[in-house]
Automatic annotation (TrEMBL):
Residues 42-437 form the Pyrroloquinoline quinone-dependent pyranose dehydrogenase beta-propeller domain. This is Glucose/sorbosone dehydrogenase. Gene3D superfamilies: TolB, C-terminal domain. It comes from Purpureocillium lavendulum. InterPro entries: 6-blade_b-propeller_TolB-like (IPR011042), Beta-prop_PDH (IPR054539), Quinoprot_gluc/sorb_DH_b-prop (IPR011041), SMP-30/CGR1_Lactonase (IPR051262).
Length: 475
């Protein structure tokens, strides 16, 4: 009897392991980089490999590569670090140097950008943007900081994302969020809250006073907290990803689990006045929000995903129609609370990679992934329809969200290196990953994810077998 059940179980094991197509662990990963994550590793989509490239940071946020190929990292509350790739065997097999702290400051917390010529480094605190002369060859900043933009203080949303335009060199785009979840002052354009503005920072001499945030060219307002901002290198379009409100009701019903959607918004081109109509508009917050999930949505009417509707404070004075006609709706919406924090286009403009930091106030966690949104190269707009719910396709994701937020990677900053690899920070775990698409099969990088899963499965089978064998002897 027991022997028969052992045979049945072993047969079942063999069948299920081939059905599940379990990856055989690679014993011959020759890459000298042996860094491993200490939690359930994220899993790369087919065609992608990834590897842990560096760890030991406190809260790494934005990253960028300098002209010498070194990676600059803002470690929030610590300063700016520079690390080099000391060994590069191609694919994801990189060995990075010990990070060198080039700026020490507890104030710097998120934004980072290098000027087009690579010789000025911009880093933000919650209230200011500072500039330093930067020498990529030496890997050092020179002299004292200069304040280039000031007066952005606020207590709640404290990141000031920086984007140095490549199409209009000298222009620095700065994104400033709301002061609270639902910020009444953001209704007033003169408050400067929840806005993206562009500044001609190249014009500022060493002795010039800083710009006030209100001096910038308004690219958009009513943008609750657009932490990710990018310029499409192919078409020149400025795009942002917005983190929408946490708690929301409609007709008195709590709809916050699946609404409102996070947003992908368009802001025209900096170098092209014909797109001025796409700039300076009000994108809705805190009056109008984008719908994500239409199922069981109260008074849905003719709304589809990514259309706008009024929040509870404005439902009496604004109609759904007005929210779509008088305010700028997103080009695409994403799952509520996924928290998109960065966006970076591929060089040819065919894809935008987005980091989704992950939810904290949803019953079932969501996000904790890097995803790809396809763009139409001819139009410079997303390929997916406005109301698509499948536009963001996972590249690196967390299979078991039950351990989030504590036992999960939480992607923030993204940057491409000169070999077309995507680098990403994870702030909660203090790590930096490198991702590569279409690498050779013997890269081995993917095995960080698959290997540990294999190890888990092997361990599970060992338990099953041990139980069966024990049962056999007990019988
Ligand atoms: C900028 O320089 C001033 C004056 O030396 C200094 O007090 C401040 O801490 C510096 N800020 C940063 C972020 O380094
Ligand atoms: C809008 O904000 C500005 C700047 O804080 C302030 O001077 C003005 O009174 C505000 N307007 C309204 C209508 O609240
Ligand atoms: C910041 O705002 C204050 C008060 O409105 C103003 O006096 C100061 O000039 C502003 N700073 C800059 C750099 O514009
Ligand atoms: C703006 O940049 C785009 C992309 O590089 C380029 O095709 C276009 O000619 C530029 N427009 C102007 C007005 O310079
Ligand atoms: C939308 O909500 C319904 C009902 O709560 C749920 O079954 C469905 O999975 C949700 N769809 C998405 C894409 O979130
Ligand atoms: C990887 O291969 C896919 C499918 O052939 C292709 O669409 C994609 O552009 C390739 N990516 C890179 C970075 O070569």
């Amino acid at each position: 009897m027991a022997l028969r059940s052992l045979v049945v179980l072993l047969a079942a094991a063999a069948a299920s392991s081939s059905a599940a197509n379990i990856v055989v662990p690679r014993a011959d990963d020759s890459c000298p980089n042996k860094l491993k994550v200490s939690y359930e590793p994220p899993v790369a989509a087919e065609g992608w490999q990834y590897r842990l490239a560096a760890n030991g940071f406190k809260k790494p946020r934005s990253i960028t590569f300098d002209k010498a190929g070194a990676l600059l990292v803002v470690d929030s509350g610590v300063g700016v670090f520079r690390l080099t790739v000391d060994q590069d065997q191609g694919g994801t097999c990189v060995v990075t140097s010990q990070p060198k702290k080039i700026i020490s400051s507890t104030e710097l917390n998120h934004g980072l950008a290098l000027s087009d010529d690579g010789e000025t480094l911009y880093v933000s605190s919650s209230s200011k943007v500072y500039a330093w002369a930067y020498d990529a060859k030496a890997g050092t900043v020179g002299g004292a900081n200069r304040t280039v933009i000031a007066n952005m203080s606020s207590t709640d949303k404290t990141t000031r994302t920086l984007l140095a335009s490549r199409k209009q060199p000298g222009m620095l785009v700065v994104s400033r969020g709301s002061v609270d979840d639902e910020d009444p002052l953001a209704r007033n354009k003169s408050s400067g809250h929840s806005q993206i503005r562009a500044f001609d920072v190249a014009r500022l001499g060493d002795k010039d006073a800083a710009y006030d945030f209100m001096d910038g060219v308004l690219l958009g307002w009513g943008l609750r907290n657009s932490v990710g901002v990018a310029e499409d290198p192919s078409k020149g379009g400025i795009w942002s990803v917005e983190n929408s409100i946490d708690e929301l009701t409609r007709n008195g019903q709590d709809i916050h689990q699946d609404n409102p959607g996070e947003e992908l918004n368009y802001h025209g081109r900096l170098n092209d006045s014909s797109t001025a109509k796409d700039q300076g508009g009000n994108y809705g917050f805190p009056r109008c929000y984008a719908i994500w999930n239409t199922t069981n949505f109260p008074s849905l009417g003719s709304l589809t995903t990514a259309d706008q509707f009024p929040g509870p404070d404005d439902a009496k004075t604004l109609s759904d129609d007005q929210c779509n006609k008088d305010y700028v709706a997103p080009r695409l919406a994403f799952q509520a609370h996924t928290a998109p924090l960065d966006v970076k286009f591929t060089q040819d403009g065919s894809n935008a990679l987005i980091s989704f930091h992950g939810s904290w106030n949803r019953k079932n966690p969501t996000g904790y992934r890097i995803a790809l949104v396809a763009f139409n190269k001819a139009t410079g707009q997303p390929s997916a329809a406005h109301d698509s719910m499948t536009a963001a396709v996972d590249v690196l994701s967390t299979p078991d969200l039950a351990n989030c937020p504590d036992g999960c990677f939480r992607p923030v900053g993204l940057a491409w290196d000169s070999k077309g690899r995507l680098w990403a920070t994870s702030d909660s775990t203090g790590e930096i990953f490198v991702l590569n698409q279409n690498g050779t099969a013997d890269d081995g990088g993917n095995s960080i994810g698959s290997r540990s899963l294999v190890a888990d499965k092997a361990a599970a089978w060992a338990v099953v077998l041990a139980a069966v064998v024990a049962g056999f002897f007990l019988a």
